[in-house]
Amino acid sequence: MRRALLAITGLAASTTALVVFKGSPAATQVAQNLPTAQPVDPTPQDVDPAAAPAPGAAAEPPAGAPTPSVAPSAPSSAKPTKSTTRPPSTPRTTTKAPTAPRPTTKAPQPTTRRITGPGVDNEYGYVQVQIVVSGTRIVDAVALSLPSGGESDIHSDDVSGRYDGSGGEVVQKQSANVNTVSGATETSNSYKQSLRGAIEQAF
């Protein structure tokens, strides 16, 4: 039994030494005869090569992965913005032309004037006449002074009643060519003389 164990042990040791002795050169020869290692294709065997992303293309992130925020690219050429601010406008000054005076259809009112004739003395007393003129017409006449006393009062009243007033002979004739009052010739002539002087001043 002991011999048999020793025999087995010795056989194993001799076999190991033989393998070590012969294995070293043979292993080297086997390594030299092996083909050159090829690059390993990283693409999984079950993935279609046509579906693979092209070189340089960004790989699609896997589902569920957070999407990276991409900053917006600045425009290549920024156009200057137009200014909408308007300059202050100057106020318009409107000059209104002066309006011409409207012609009046109403005739201007004539100016009324009072003209006093010169005083005249006669043997009965003092005579002076005043006329009222409007425009170019005599509108009234009045004796400012006539002889008085006795019969002179009667004659003076006759002369005044004939010539004076707006309805008297002076206004009717528009002149000093009035008729002489009968019985008061001297007073009538003195009245005409003063009346003629007033008319000459008026016209």
Structural commentary:
The protein has 203 residues and is α+β, with helices and mostly antiparallel strands. 33% of the residues lie in helices and 13% in strands. The chain is built from four helices and four strands. The protein has helices at residues 2-33, 151-163, 169-173, 185-202; strands at residues 112-116, 120-122, 125-134, 137-145. Strands 1, 2, 3 and 4 form a four-stranded antiparallel sheet that branches. The longest helix has 32 residues, at 2-33. The model is unreliable at 17-31 and 51-59 (pLDDT under 50).
Count the DSSP helices: 4
Strand content: 5-15%
Given as residue ranges, the uncertain stretches (5+ residues, pLDDT < 50) are 17-31, 51-59
Specify the helix fraction band: 25-40%
List the helices and strands and how they pair.
Blueprint: H1 2-33, E1 112-116, E2 120-122, E3 125-134, E4 137-145, H2 151-163, H3 169-173, H4 185-202
Briefly say what this structure is.
The protein has helices at residues 2-33, 151-163, 169-173, 185-202, and strands at 112-116, 120-122, 125-134, 137-145. The chain is an alpha+beta fold and 203 residues long.
Question: What labels describe this entry?
Answer:
single chain; 203 residues; alpha+beta; four-stranded antiparallel sheet; 33% helix; rod-shaped
